Amino acid sequence: MGKLFEELDFRETPLGDLILQKRKYLQLDGLDVYEVKLGDAFLMSSLFHEVEEALSRLGLAALDGKDWDVVVGGLGLGYTAVAALEVPGVKSMLVVDALEGVIDWHQRELVPLGKTMNEDERCRYILGDFFKLAADPDKGFDPDQPGRKFHAVLLDIDHSPKNLLASANASFYTQEGLWKLADQLHPGGVFALWSDDAPDQEFIADLETIFCEVKTDIVRFPNPLLETVSESTVYVAKL
């Protein structure tokens, strides 16, 4: 039957202890679930990935044409990135994460989607602070091509524009921070964001000062452990 619980990796980070663990849920027919903890907080679980996939699907659906260069902010367990790679119009993808351990898990294929990403030549990992890179359009997200512009930026790091993993991230969610991000997009480019909270009208108003089109989608998904339905928000803003 295998172990009911296994810690796959542990490392210390400036944000707290980073842990990758695998848990077998007997109530779900022995399903293996991968979980990530940072400090005392559960960051993500492979049991819930509908919203991460919807972030890519909804964000990229707003683009015109094809041959898109995409940035994914936050690697997590890889669901946003792999969903983006499944869209035929994606030509290249940078996945930016500030935690070396998270990138290492995928490169070593300790997580289920690591192999898929490693074998796709369009995908490249970038070790760096997404928010610092977003705030510097002259350098931008690609260390090999300073100032490079992209067709889409898909962001899944903080819990919401107000519920942040680190207080330093707050400046990104201001008009000034969003302008700097928009400066790294092609005309007609898209910024899409996952949020665990309901739509934030103040944040929507800030987006509308910069982007021509702004919409929100409520994504509902089942919680089989609690036998309830949860929901999150995906923001999609287009230049």
Keywords:
239 residues, 22% helix, 38% strand, globular
In short:
The chain has 239 residues and is of the alpha/beta class. It is built from seven helices and eleven strands.
Describe this structure in words.
With 239 residues, the protein is α/β, with parallel strands linked by helices. The chain contains 7 helices and 11 strands. A 7-stranded mixed β-sheet has the order 7-6-5-8-9-11-10. It has a 4-stranded antiparallel β-sheet with strand order 1-2-3-4, with no helix packed on it. It is 22% helix and 38% strand. The mean pLDDT is 94. It folds into 2 domains: 5-45; 50-238, Rossmann fold, CATH 3.40.50.150. The protein has helices at residues 50-61, 79-85, 100-107, 114-118, 130-134, 175-182, 201-208; strands at residues 5-13, 16-25, 31-38, 41-45, 68-73, 90-97, 123-127, 150-155, 185-195, 213-223, 228-238.
**What oligomerization state is this entry in?**
single chain
Categorize the overall geometry.
globular
Strand content: 35-45%
Query: In the CATH scheme, what's the topology name of the largest domain?
Result: Rossmann fold
Give helix and strand order, one letter per element, not per position: EEEEHEHEHHEHEHEHEE
Distance between the termini: 52 Å
